[in-house]
């Protein structure tokens, strides 16, 4: 029996102090983004194109419109924002810097509030990564920034028949070291930008190119508390190169990267409001 006060598992309820914290996070983010030339957009909850944004279509909550066309609830905002700006608003605006404050909804009843940012046509990930850092600093969140390049695991799988993408998903360090390749060993233990030139000097050309991108990004970002994670891999439908996560313990506060939609390269990130609310509420209680 479902009681009257029950809410679906995975859905969110904010009230009183927790609602105030949520609003504070959103206000801080919107003020900083507005100051940096970003305009807000709110996209429809219903979409015909979410299958282009979500890696696992099983996560979509599907419905049908009045003409029985298949659509789904918004499970991801990035590609929808880019598509709407390019295809629907393109003739009416030259604005390329956008942000949104809205939840995504995934099967069966998962609700996740986000502050998202997209800088369309921009190639420098640092241009938005520094904004994510500014927002979290203003919220007094002390976390670690992890810098990765999702292309590196893909290249390693192409180079070594014994490796699979699952080895990177599950961080199978023993399997990487068993290759007995010096530059791979150094790549496994690469953590700080001061170590990166040593790996670049002995790595194959294709790996060098991707490590140089990571090195350049490190020189452009303002966050001091950062590490490199070249072996990190996440299954992302559109982020496929430079990528970052802001983490503390097992909590992810933000993540973003460089991506391509059709022929347009852009950069963006999402800040996870629910995780921040939980942390800030706990700090208030403490």
Outline of the structure:
This protein has 286 residues and is of the alpha+beta class. The protein has helices at 17-35, 78-88, 126-138, 151-159, 165-169, 173-177, 182-189, 196-200, 205-220, 273-285, and strands at 39-40, 46-47, 62-64, 70-73, 97-106, 110-120, 144-149, 226-228, 239-248, 251-261, 264-272. The model has no long low-confidence stretch (mean pLDDT 93).
Topology:
Elements: H1 17-35, E1 39-40, E2 46-47, E3 62-64, E4 70-73, H2 78-88, E5 97-106, E6 110-120, H3 126-138, E7 144-149, H4 151-159, H5 165-169, H6 173-177, H7 182-189, H8 196-200, H9 205-220, E8 226-228, E9 239-248, E10 251-261, E11 264-272, H10 273-285
Parallel strand pairs: 1-5, 7-8
Antiparallel strand pairs: 2-4, 3-4, 5-6, 6-11, 7-9, 9-10, 10-11
Helix pairs in contact: 1-3, 1-10, 4-9
According to DSSP, the number of beta strands is 11
Query: In percent, how much strand structure appears in the residues?
Result: 15-25%
Pick out the low-confidence regions.
none
Task: Describe the strand arrangement of the main beta sheet, using strand numbers.
Answer: 1-5-6-11-10-9-7-8
Please name the fourth-level CATH homologous superfamily of the domain at 1-142 and 264-286: Bira Bifunctional Protein, Domain 2
Instruction: State the helicity in percent bands.
Output: 25-40%
Shape assignment? globular
Regarding CATH, which class of the domain at 1-142 and 264-286? Alpha Beta
Just name the CATH architecture of the domain at 1-142 and 264-286. Answer: 2-Layer Sandwich
């Amino acid at each position: 029996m479902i009681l009257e006060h029950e809410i679906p598992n995975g859905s969110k309820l904010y009230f009183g102090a927790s609602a105030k914290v949520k609003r504070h996070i959103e206000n801080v983010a919107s003020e900083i983004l507005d100051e940096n030339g970003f305009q807000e957009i709110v996209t429809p909850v219903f979409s015909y194109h979410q299958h282009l944004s979500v890696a696992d279509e099983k996560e979509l909550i599907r419905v049908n419109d009045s003409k029985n066309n298949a659509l789904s609830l918004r499970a991801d905002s990035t590609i929808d924002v880019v598509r709407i700006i390019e295809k629907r608003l393109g003739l009416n605006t030259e604005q390329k810097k956008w942000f949104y404050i809205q939840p995504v909804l995934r099967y069966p009843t998962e609700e996740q509030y986000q502050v998202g940012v997209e800088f369309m046509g921009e190639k420098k990930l640092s241009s938005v990564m520094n904004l994510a850092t500014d927002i979290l600093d203003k919220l007094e969140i002390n976390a670690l920034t992890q810098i990765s390049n999702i292309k590196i695991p893909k290249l390693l799988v192409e180079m070594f028949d014994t490796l699979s993408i699952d080895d990177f998903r599950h961080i199978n360090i023993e399997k990487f070291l068993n290759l007995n390749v010096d530059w791979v060993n150094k790549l496994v233990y690469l953590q700080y930008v001061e170590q990166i030139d040593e790996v670049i000097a002995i790595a194959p050309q294709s790996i060098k190119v991707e490590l140089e991108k990571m090195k350049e990004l490190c020189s452009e970002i303002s966050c001091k508390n950062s590490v490199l994670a070249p072996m990190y891999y996440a299954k992302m439908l559109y982020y496929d190169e430079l990528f970052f996560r802001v983490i503390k313990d097992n909590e992810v506060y933000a993540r973003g990267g460089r991506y391509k939609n059709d022929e347009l390269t852009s950069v963006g990130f999402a800040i996870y409001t629910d995780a921040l609310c939980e942390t800030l509420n706990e700090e208030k209680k403490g």
